[in-house]
Amino acid sequence: MSAAVIGSNPLPEVRITALRRGRLEESTGTEGLAKLVRERDTRVWIDLTAASPTTIHAVADQLGLHPLIAEDIVETNERAKVQLEGDVIHVVLFSLYRDGDVHEEEVDFVLGRGWLLTAHSANWDPNQAHQLRMGVAGLLERGPDFLMWALADAIVDAYFPIFDALSDEIDSAQDAVLERATQETLEQVFRLKRELIQIRHVLAPSRELFAQLTSREFGQISEGTVFYFRDVYDHLVRLNDEFDTHRELIASTLDVYLSTINNNLTVIMKRLTGVTVILAGVGAIAGLGGMSEAAAALTGQQPPAFYVVVGLTVALAGAATLVLRRLGWR
């Protein structure tokens, strides 16, 4: 059986944890799974890590799942969702992680009576969920639905550090734009904007999903666990508000960048206009004097008109420069 690797810890493709008569049992095979999930007072967690389609369909057959659910787990979904199929709930969430860019990983939950199936890639390790520190046995004792909440809550909690990092980078980009608007700064702003767009594809559907889970329309989720899902929903509402704030900050940063570029162009055009005014005056005087004065100067015969032309040229250039400086030209 293949094993996925997270860091240096290999995870089995199939991992089954059962709370049976108060004792926690673990295995990595699917033999006897169909019988196990039908035992009274036994609660089971089946975790699939980077499982092959063959393994997923085999586990689905043992659990008696509809073929469409198995196919949905195999295929990549585009958005978070929850759907009821018979007496089981299928929930699709997305974990986020960041390594320069934001990446999303699909995590599937299938909740039945007395059991929970999770399926995910090797990039997400359920053992890292801080709620699991209280022990899988304690979570399963409160029900598979409570275990699903613990894992889903860990996924959503991991969004917050990403938002904090984005907030710091947006502040840095704003400072860079105000200090000096460069092409690198613009690329940074657009990268942050691209990451926010990707996060939006996860946040909004997830909020709708948890709004459904807290509506008490699913009998597989106990009344007590609904309140915990409501807490996750509140977190997502807060994250959506933060997303709107970040989006507005990015938009204002782009506006400031464009404004700074326009101001720089205005300054450059002002300088070029000033130089043109100075040269125009000098050119006009030189044109009146003509080439004959310059030729006379080269032969050592400087007529009085030569000095008049030179004086007027210098005086006009100096006067134009002083006037332009008084008008704010730099």
Mind telling me the CATH class of the domain at 1-136? Alpha Beta
> What general form does the structure show?
rod-shaped
- Spans where pLDDT lies below 50 across 5 or more residues: 1-8
Mean pLDDT reading: 82
Fraction of residues in H or I helices: 55-70%
SSE sequence, one letter per element: EEEEHEHHEEEEHHHHHHH
The beta-strand count equals 9
Radius of gyration: 35 Å
Question: SS-based structural class?
Answer: alpha+beta
Q: Ends: how far apart?
A: 74 Å
- Main sheet makeup: 7 strands, mixed
Stated plainly, the CATH topology of the domain at 1-136 is called: Beta Polymerase, domain 2
The proportion of strand residues reads 15-25%
Q: Which superfamily, in CATH terms, is the homologous superfamily of the domain at 1-136?
A: CorA soluble domain-like
CATH architecture descriptor of the domain at 1-136: 2-Layer Sandwich
How is this structure best described in words?
The chain is an alpha+beta fold and 330 residues long. It has helices at 33-36, 53-63, 67-74, 136-141, 144-157, 159-179, 183-213, 223-289, 291-298, 304-326; strands at residues 3-6, 9-12, 14-20, 23-27, 42-49, 81-85, 88-98, 102-112, 115-120. The protein has a seven-stranded mixed sheet. Strands 1-2 form a two-stranded antiparallel sheet. The N and C termini lie far apart (74 Å). 29% of the residues are buried.
